[in-house]
Amino acid sequence: MAMSLVAETHSNPDASRDVETLAMSNETGYRRFRAGKFHFARDEYFARLSWPGGTRTIPIDAFLRALMRDVAWGFFYGTVAFDGIFGTINHYGTVTLYAGKFDDAYRAAGRDYEELYDSPALMSLFREMLSDWTIEGYDPFAAPMETGTAWGKKSGSNEAAIGRQRVTARRMVGLPGDTPVRTDDLGFPVNRDFADVAQDQPLVEAEPGFEGEVSAYNLFGYLSRSDVTWNPSVCSVVGDSLFCPTSEEFILPIEHGNDRCEWFLQLSDEISWEIKDKNSGKPRATVVQKAGDIACMPADIRHQGFSTKRSMLLVWENGSSKIPELIAKGEAPIVAVTF
Amino acid sequence: MSSVVTKFGSLAEYEKGGVTIVDDNPRNYVFSNVFDVAAKSAPYERIAVGKNFEYVIEAFRAEGESAWYAAAHDEFVLTMDGEIEVHLVKLADPGVVDPESLGAHRLANWPDGAKMGRIVLRRGHMALLPVGSAYRLVATAPAAGIFQTIQGPETIERWAEICQVD
Fold first, then answer.
1. DSSP string, A133-146
2. Distance between CA atoms of residues A284 and A278, nearest Å
3. Per-residue pLDDT, A2
4. Considering only CB atoms, which chain A residues are within 8 Å of B26?
5. Is the Cβ pair B121, A202 closer than 8 Å?
6. Interchain proximity B6–A268, CB inside 8 Å
């Protein structure tokens, strides 16, 4: 069993399981979906969302990129904002579906709305939605220059793209029995934007009997072969300390409002992060990270990254199951270090 | 020949980004650069550049031979620049490090135990420093790296010196 990045630790019998896949539209060929009083439909260009007292229209390519991450990450840590209005909040066993909760104007007007769901129920609905709405030739995990478009009426599907298994090493990539090093033969060619990255492997000389412990691999080469973007995956583990490197190109498809401090170490190239207040959405800072820069995202912000040249980013998470309890008690630190 | 240029940093050449504040305190972002930290540290000083509860990322400059270290848990080393050799010994007495302790411990003496092996890491290479072993690092030329570990007696915190403060 691979180690999960986000563990489910809390259940709530009051959380709703009222989700439903609705009929297919004769006009577009896409199904509609319902979670409680939230309704989801797509047409040629847009995802159209509605809930009591509100509606939201999101370009379908952006919506599918966000939905892909929410599904792949198991609702991730904290808030996954599809845009400034709509998103999910992970409670690690239950999940809140919200609209306007983190927007001053919506809240002031009383237009904010939310419902609590059993995580597996909502995840099941999101998976069906992702499957039905992703057409042939469109890969919501890929950089825009590496995939077709999401536009148009229902035309095939792309289960191979949306069904990728998330990499979750138990100890370290490349160890016997752990997740393997990426190679051409395993279907991971070097990405076009990392064509110059060295592919040499470390020299490893293990004495007899220690082959399983004397181990190393080329992490940068491994990242150069990633076929997805903005998808941190566990590559080495010290207790709850998870190194989750990832390759990044274009825009982080969500605004991530983590519920805990989250560290970013830029391994190559450059990412610009726009930082907003988690609750109000007002700008707080811009963080530009170049190779070797390390920074911490406070727990009371939301962030979104921009990377023109495909870059390598080490996302560093603390996956401790104690942290949600600290968050619930208001005892989790907002900043990682005070000095 | 590829025209792509992937920019990595090095001890000799690195460029820092930074935090531009709209309405916040730059200290909240604990912003530093591992090459900058390594370049300004003594060889094998383990400078915390990231901290998440008890866990840390330590930056270091490798130059010459390090002391021998051991921990009561796995650690990992990632070479960010240059070449670093890792020597591993299986501790005959794992009790030389308190099994309840955290972080890397400097050993006073050459560790007693069987030789496990040798690893040569270049830029981007990561190695396991397994629990139950002792390790030392060797670099014939200045190199830089980071440890994924837990805060311990060898961890040095000098945040105000390494981080952007205004």
1. HPPTT--TTS-GGG
2. 10
3. 32
4. 285
5. yes
6. yes
